[in-house]
Prior knowledge:
Blueprint: E1 2-11, H1 17-27, E2 34-37, E3 42-47, H2 48-66, E4 69-77
Antiparallel strand pairs: 1-3, 1-4, 2-3
Helix pairs in contact: 1-2
Amino acid sequence: MKLTAEISMYPFHENYLDPIKWFIHRLDSYPTIQRVTNAMATQVCGDYQDVMAMLATEMQAAHEKWGKAVFVCKFIGGELNLAHSE
């Protein structure tokens, strides 16, 4: 089963862009997961288990490296076309 997720990261860090860019860069290391980022959030799509495992790993890594951060996620069962725009 496929899963599409939208993720927003809100680091409790003075220079908040560094942790966000770091997190997004790490998402690109997963070849089976598609990623699209815009000004508001990052969307990822892939196999359900792959996406959930990636999020668990990378959110933990972000907390360990950068300290406190809020992650807001929305999940949609199934595959969405991340290139779609209107």
